[in-house]
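Justification of resources, computational component.

The compute hours requested in this renewal are based largely on the per-chain cost of generating structure records like the one below. Each record pairs the submitted sequence with a full structure-token output. That output is archived, and it is also reused by downstream analysis tasks.
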Amino acid sequence: MVFTPLEIKETVDMFLRYKLDIRAITLGISLLDCVSSSGKETRSRIREKLFRVAGPLVKTGREIETEYGIPIINKRVSVTPISLVAASSDDEDYTAYARLLDEIAGELEIDFVGGFSALVQKGFSSGDIKLIDSIPEALASTGRVCASVNAASTRSGINMDAVRRMGEVIKAAAEKTADKDGVGCAKLVVFCNAPEDNPFMAGAFHGPGEGESCLNVGVSGPGVIKAALESRRDADFGELAEIIKKTTFKITRMGELVGMEAAKRLGVPFGILDLSLAPTPAVGDSVARILEEMGLEAAGTHGTTAALALLTDLVKKGGVMAGARIGGFSGAFIPVSEDEGMVAAVRSGSINLEKLEAMTSVCSVGLDMIALPGDTSAATIAAIIADEMAIGMVNGKTTAVRVIPVPGKSAGEWAEFGGLLGGAPIMAVNGAKSDAFIARGGWIPPPIHSFRN
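The structure output for this chain reads:
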């Protein structure tokens, strides 16, 4: 195939000027064959399997980076939810599993491990309860392990007991990492309709419906989309749609190439390509700036939800046109601390928590990487989670909550989490209480349109 000089320049610009990258290659690994009645034996089997299957992951990623000139920012592993793996063991506290995963990740130079997880949308097993109770200490005593809990689904409704408990867990995780602005919570997500093939942290896990192993890829290119729109500021929405779809098509083809090559070299099936516009704190790598390029003065102003809905839909359409294995979330992420444009919008007052909640009805995930005042109660956090679970349940989409109540800090102050997690101004929370609502507990039934098969 012959490429023109213009096509070559366009590709080089995508990487060097507009920050296009493979955000993550995530190797999903089933640990179901590691189950034992002895916790010590289970962990020994986990260690052996992860070294055997994931041992070549980082080396393979680096080789592909060098050969193709494509940045791969993170090399990650996701495993079967530990609540399932540890349930048959004699362990009462699952923190040891998190520490083992963290130790293995360090030895193999893996950036993050996802799967310290529980699926409780319809109720708790004994293993789920033990895992959830272990989350605060597990996150405080590890650096690379991520946790998630699926508390709701469109088919099952909302487990409000789980929602209430997760409000308490988030508060505890923040307090245990108070010296680092509650960063433990940055590795914890509460989901509705969690996908089993997600390559992005902190919510990645290798679902029980997945095979023995697979390689999932997460691609991100907010800067490339923004640059494409800059050249056509006079375009109407029809033309805008074509620009975004065509640009997304190109990004997707690149990601699929890398994913298939990595899977081939690792000797595992290629799973899915998640084409999500996941920003970073770097200037030029922002979803908020794409929305502003569409004509908004600042993200959060009137029209923001419409612009985000348009962007998310077109990213999905461009991806589906380009590849047969589009999955995960795919669309646009709006994490506050990881997006310099979102940080600027919070600082200017153009966006608040309520507007972000409205935007989550049309974006890829939900309330993500939002710093809250340290005195925000567990019940208020649970109510915030409940709102997002309801949006996901009713709309049949994935929603999630990753919020950080920053100990000792108030609205308007700054919280710093470091690296790709970035930092953010602490956002004000509605002062009216939801305690009596959350205290009811029980189960919110699924919507009427879930009754189908």
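Residues 67 and 197 are 27 Å apart (CA to CA). The radius of gyration is 21 Å.
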